[in-house]
Amino acid sequence: MNGENGTNKKKLIKIKIKPKSSMTTQTVEKEKDEEKEEPPTTVDAAASAAETSTSTYKIETCDYTIINCCCIKGLTTMKDENKKIHLTVTSPPYYNVKDYVNYADYKDYLSTLRTVFTLIYEITEDGRMCCVNLSNILIQRESRNCESSRIPLVFHFVPLMEDIGWKFIEDILWIKPEGAAKNRNGGFFQHRQPVAYKPNIINEYIFVFQKPSKHLIDKIVRGYDAITSLNSRVDDGYERSNVWKINPETKSKHPAPYPELLVDNLIKYYSFCGDTVLDPFVGSGTTTISAFRLNRKSIGFEIHKDYMDIFENRIKTTIKNNTQPNIAIDKDEYLNLNEEQIKKKLNKYSKKHLYHLVNNDCKYKSFSKDKIVDLIHQLNFVDAT
């Protein structure tokens, strides 16, 4: 890395964010090169070009970190330090996206993915999940004398993951509006000649894999305390099939963004509050933003420092928009009320607010209104507070 070799001078910039309410002061530390670096041409070149800066956000007892480095280096460090994660949610960079990372060929691309997901496998807790958003690769034709082609990446990726040791769990189809797709059937629309048919592509895949465990999922669920389990319970409105119709992200400056709703779903369905979520290709920080809003810890790696700046702006906005009031609950008062009386008493607060129980050694736990009602009627509420 340039910073490690001493080729560029660095200056340390500290930005302090002071959100409202009970949020503690946020400290962002990052190192910036004074000289502009050339874009990478290979994975190794990109790794050497990425500076070793970090953006670390500490919200209460949670640590949200994005590190500007090649994810292979970052994951190797995590492995060496014996750090563990509970869930991975990521979307690897497309094979043929220009100005991001250029691979020697498709074989090199697959080899890089194998290295990355082998390292993720080694730092994942037994029985926990890895969610990967992928799509087959469209190679545009170079001239009118050439044809476009597609590489079936998704069908190569599953056996690659199984060969590493991952267990295939689910395949989810992300369906986009037809207008979001690149038009491939213009010629066919005009001539309607057989064999020339090429449909517009409006789907991507989310594959869910599990690191095998000798125990059943039930043991993982039982490993969490009653408050965490209740707070992590998935509300109504969850996706009931493996076909998710979600509009793509259109305002991001990242070349391959994915929508927060998609990430929210995966984090809610496959992790508990307080778990650590990893994104080795974090980009502008969508996975980190979702993890923050859903009370999970997160670790992300991003090879391009420009996206670190985008993330800083996004996390500031998210912190501002997600500041919630503290409500100290008098359990004795509420335990003598029925559910309707409790709801009436809490009715002055918006259902969109999160409520914090502050009696448990200053460990903040957030609850929706309905979950507070449920919690009050559980015997373990007395012990928890």
From TrEMBL:
Chemical reaction(s) catalysed: a 2'-deoxycytidine in DNA + S-adenosyl-L-methionine = an N(4)-methyl-2'-deoxycytidine in DNA + S-adenosyl-L-homocysteine + H(+)
Domain (DNA methylase N-4/N-6) ranges: 85-312
SUPFAM superfamilies, A to Z: S-adenosyl-L-methionine-dependent methyltransferases (SSF53335)
Listed GO MF terms: DNA binding; N-methyltransferase activity; site-specific DNA-methyltransferase (adenine-specific) activity; site-specific DNA-methyltransferase (cytosine-N4-specific) activity
Region feature (Disordered): 18-47
Keywords: DNA-binding, Methyltransferase, Restriction system, S-adenosyl-L-methionine, Transferase
GO CC list: cytoplasm
PROSITE patterns in the record: N4_MTASE (PS00093)
Enzyme Commission number, as recorded: 2.1.1.113
GO biological process: DNA restriction-modification system; methylation
Top EC group: transferase
Keyword S-adenosyl-L-methionine recorded: yes
Family: Belongs to the N(4)/N(6)-methyltransferase family. N(4) subfamily.
Protein name: site-specific DNA-methyltransferase (cytosine-N(4)-specific)
